[in-house]
## 1
Amino acid sequence: MIPVLRLLAAVSALIAASSSGVFAQATADVGLLARGEYLLKISGCTHCHTAEGGEPLAGGRALETPFGTFYTPNITAHPTAGIGAWSAEDFRRALHQGLAPDGSDYYPAFPYTSYTLIRADDAFAMHTYLMSLPASTQPNREHELAWFLASRLAATAWKWLFFDAGEIQQSTAQSAQWNRGAYLAEALGHCGECHTPRNLLGALQTDQAYAGNAEGPESELVPNITPHKDTGIGDWSREGLEEFLKFGELPDGDYTSGSMEAVIEGVRHLTPQDRNALIDYLRALPSIDNRVRK
Amino acid sequence: MKLATRLCLLIAGLTLTVPGIAAKDPNLKLLKARQGEMQLRAYNVGPLFGMAKGKMEYDAALASKLANNLKTQLSLDIGGAWKKGTDIEAYPGKTTSLGKIWTTYPEISEYGKKYAKAVKELAAEAGNGLDALKPKISAVGKTCKGCHDEFRELN
């Protein structure tokens, strides 16, 4: 009898909780966490904020650029070593405006130029998920930059020249699928941050969007991913693009390496619908003839 | 009759000319030799990446065999196939090798050394489980990309 009574009590408690909204809230939280996890994976956060062999999201990865070496920070929930003391609004402001909680400007090695396009509700989900993960005490490391960039005022000036904040706007002239693809490529995936060449001051050359970059992260060549037949991905089949986004396999049977290998670790989690939307968007980009060479 | 005569002449001409061109440019054989060597590397590397990326199931015996094939390949000396002047400028559409290979020589040798080191480490670990294979094949891929980025035409 006792197990039956316990079962009845449990069912009663569940009904009571559900009617009072607690159950609904718990379900919503689980959904929010799952959404945050998905967004974090496909946005590449884990890749950049995890050093080789290091604790997940505890930072310390070196990003070598023509302006010096940036070390990604700890974004675990630790209150002092990480971002555990940040509010959801602090997190949103960092993504959307490139601002630290103390009001100082971030260098654009943190791709807020793309993350500014992320919807506020998605930023909230990402923050919620991050705060649910284990905290790391790993201290942040100072960047090693050229002397003229040592002051954060350089970042302020750069933002004034090149940064416009604002969430992505839906294009009514395009399909829902295209809009989703644009959101994945431009905002979450921030593909252009590597695949678009930069000017001497490190700003994206938007007239050459996705046309490849001879000065990619860690001095890698980053290919042209516009649909140009000779120099881009215009001769890739849809299946070829799917295989690439799932496994990093190139049409000739080789596999991508270097930074893109790590990016694939994130984007391989794309749902089939999102993968299709991303492929559709990339295939609809303006075709640019640009052979990338050092 | 006129058509038949012309056809005969055309066939005879082609028969004589095509091998003639090939015989006149022995460098084409060099290009094929080094491309063959690269294809053999790709043959061995492909399934190793496939296992690491979850496209195919990990097979310790196969992983070990392929990784050791790569190691064995290190002992091949086909340096003679990398003759100066056989770059993309001289042979557009037939090779993707950039002239920089020769103008900056021996810079490329450093890339070769990194590759050889990564392959030896891969051969030692590939059969010891998927977790052992992953970082080692990734390291090999990184050395391949490093060299290709510098010395090979992209796309």
## 2
Amino acid sequence: MSMDLIISALVTTIGITTPILLAATGELVVEKSGVLNLGVEGMMLVGAVTGFAVAFTTFNPWLGILAAAAAGAASALVFGVLVLTFGANQVATGLALAIFGIGLSTLIGAGFVGMIVPPFTSIFPEELARDPFWRLIFGHSPIVYLALIMVMVVAWFLKSTRWGLVLRAVGENDLSAHSIGYSVIGIRYAAIAFGGAMAGIAGSYFSLVITPMWAEQMTAGRGWIALALVVFASWKPGRLLTGAYFFGVLMTLELYAKASGFSFLPSQFWASMPYLMAVLVLALISARERTGSEAPACLGKPFMPGE
Amino acid sequence: MTPKNNEGAAAGVARLELKGITKQFPGVLANDHVSLKVMPGEIHALLGENGAGKSTLVKMIYGIMQPDAGSFTWNGAPCVMSNPKAARKLGIGMVFQHFSLFEAMTVLENIALGLDAAIPQRELEAEILRVLDSYGLKLDPQRIVSTLSVGERQRIEIVRALLLKPKLLIMDEPTSVLTPQEAEQLFETLRKLAADGCSILYISHKLHEIVALCETATILRGGKMVATCDPRQMTSRAMAELMIGANLKEVSKAPSRSFGAAKFTVADLSLAKLGDFGVALRHISFTVRAGEIFGIAGVAGNGQNELLDALSGERTSTSAETISLQGKAIGKLHPSQRRLAGLCAVPEERNGHAAVSEFSLTDNAVLTARQSQNLTSNGLVNSGKATSFAAQVIQSFAVKARGPSSTAGSLSGGNLQKFIMGREILQAPGVLIVSQPTWGVDAGAATAIRQAIVDLAAKGSAIVVISQDLDELLGLCDTLAVINLGQLSKVMKVGEVSIEEIGLLMGGVHGDPAATVHMTEAMHAHTV
Amino acid sequence: MRIRFEKRPEPSNFMRLATPVGAVLLTMVLGALLFDALGYDGQETIKQFFFTPVLASYKWQDVATKAAPLIIIALGLALGNTAKIWNIGAEGQYIAGALGGAFVAYLTPDVTSHWIIVPMLLAGIIGGALWAALPAWLKTRYNVNEVLSSLMLVYVSLQLLSYLIDGPWKDPNGHNFPQTAAFTDAQLLPRALPGTYVPPGLVFAIVLTFVFWVAMKRSIYGFDVRVSGAAPQAARYGGFNAKRTVWSTLLISGGMAGLAGILEATSQLGQLNLGFPSGYGFTAIIVSFLGRLHPIGIFIAGFVLAITSVGGQVAQTVVHVPSASGGIFQALMLFLILAGDVLVRYRIKIVHSASKAGAAA
């Protein structure tokens, strides 16, 4: 295999990994605060369509990303109101959010089908990315760098800041955090909004970078993979990064396998690989570690302080 | 909102004064015009039985809840405790009964969370070590909480409160999880704090502690303040009657009791620990005879829950012979099979373990009595039979409930516990295992439950009572052993064993009388 | 002044019934506003979505056709949801069931007896149950979250369907379309009422609703499922085996989805093609919640959702909204019913601000 091929494979991997990484980073923060939001796929789609619509109408991809984040956060807050203020079941509400996001994005996107925007690829001068090796470093969309920065920021936030500590405390023991005087609900709202914003940006990566156009359900289940990734990473940002690249490599292999005539296996086999691998990986992780010990203790439990 | 307080230096100005504090919950008036004064440097007891409204009152003082009516003054100035932060700002610290700790985090992180200012880790650690040192306490700031003993966990809460240099420290039932020796150590710390000018509001229902520690006591009953007194001037019995509001009924137990043959035998029972926070059981052996009440004492978290699960069949043993009932090996049987063999159990946690709070009492009867009482046929529940069994339990055990269709969650703790005990006892078990039978239960219900246990034993059942309440065990049991770190001590006869010895065993010390803290008097003052 | 939730001493039975109705009504109002905001005629959209399918009698059979599979799948899912075992992959089990039944059909093109339909239906149930068995095994053996594993398998089932109908099971006379050969007459399930389009699935839905109702209300298995969901520790204490509950709820809900799948294939499509996956498996999740996990409630909710689904097609042609926007109504309904749950256990209390306590300060 030539150097060029390897580099282009790596560039593809980075591209494929980015949205999963972004969405999973957001979800990791949400789950660390003790909330399970299964609606990632829906929030990604809402972000994808909003990002596209705004970038298309304003000719400004940056505004598109911003709008995607806002739309993702807004749809997450619908979920937030239900599970935090109304104490609704988190699993069911998360599913409702996923279905809602699919429906809403289709509705909003109906007017944009078939339009395209210029792909939002590189922010660095083209000269820097011309050489294949440098392209590996400078040749990406700003969202790629954002994703990497956000993982590091989240890692630092959770480990070294006071609010990170409070957020973990809320996820670990909501009643205690409440009785010490922290606003469990307030902190969870913030975490949910952040998770939504990250999912929104992840979605916009599909509609602004990968294929600079809108298509129904274009995120193709990656939101669910992001959820699996958080479990796979045992709620640790470092492992989230490696885990995301593991999935990224798998999906890249799928693309190359399809393209380079591994025809003895049907294409459907390759297409179902990431999902089968996700199941397998979940099984391996859960078998190796006694699950439950790694997860935030309050994950998924409703909290109603008013008795 | 609060003018600069002058530290209440002026003589006669209360550090904290409550006037007419009232709190209404749906269906219950938790606090009804409660007024009290805590003076600087005073150790003030708040006394009352379970459900008297003590916890609600201190939650309002600490700003976790807001009163419906009434007012607070702090050093003579009116104030509002809008949240715990505001309370801490005034100088109020609190040590919770159920610790507000984070299991998976370090001691240091736990303490940092209790402070309102962000202090760099290293400074905080130095500060913690200084406080520990000045009160003679031991604690490693880098340990993960889940690895600590209950006593050590309480120390975290105390240090967390002390770091704020409180003017008033609230202690909510602090000794319920301590060995007698640890409790005495805690009293020393509190006396030292009071001597330094810190007021202490000490909540308890244990009279001997209050006599030993406090200068003033405010007694609550049914949410109302019934008396303020000097506990050193009163008999325990008089205070107890103020607290309960009626003449004390005592459990009547036949003076001379004879036991039959060995009925329930546990032989070398070991069980691996489950999860990070579990305790492993190690080589547990004991025998209970027909008619005998056997007690298992110990500080919470030393394997009591694991032992109950192992005895009830919720976790089965690897070898059938480890547990036997009248010679029949039942170690491998599941809970239903053990019930059919004549073994019933009542776990410590009422809601979600012994009963399902959102289910009706009828359904809760079906939960464990469906086989022994023939409440099912052909895979279907016979709802008529189930309802009448539930009604029978309600009637025989004087459970206050609207009827068999009430949900378990609508009952008070004491009534639900009576229902659960009744449900098991009416199945006429040959062996009954109960954990914390009167935990969080009012005095009337507690007496009724203890009486039911004694009566069942009198009919020839073998009974195991697991409890952290040493007084309860000493009053109820014939023989007793102590569980510590999943190991059971030798079996002792109640009446022949000293409290010091039990206390030492609870603390994991096996036979070192030199370490005994002198506290016999305090324990003996307690006659209730 | 602010609003606070105050716990009721007993859950309100009135609210249990009123909140689903309220959720449907409020969905119409919010939906109208939303579609107005997006530049469609909101009122007209609601009319087409909710009322046209009911008022136009020729649409009733369409509604019944869509309601039957929703009810059958949702009955099974409600069992799992009651036990708090979250089977999200019913869509995959629905496909797997159809594949199971189609496999029997594929093997028996020459059988002329109508009895062949029985092994086909059984194979459908087994196919669905097998597809749910993997999440059950992973959960009981390795403690893998069933939400994710069952959902991942939906994507796998879609690929498997695509592979089979474009590969080994491809209709040789199908002009190279990815589809199976049409089922023979013997392999087709007849209409429930001769001469109408009332689907045979409706008969199954009615019978199964009754069976589940009795099972949930009266049987010891129903009790097991309820107590396992409400308080797992109490279930263990009461002598119910948690692993058995996981297995049984997943296998039953998978089998029900599989049954719905093969019923749909043999009574509606008459073959399998790429248009087969219909999203019933996901919509049924909403049906189970809207019906409050109660079989009778699910039966009604199945019709409500079927109405919006038929209405979605009407609205698509009349008001030109995209077909998938029906999902919005469905999700809104689910949001509202979940929010309404709080009213069953809590009552809303308006608190006048700044309690009288210490108001002087």
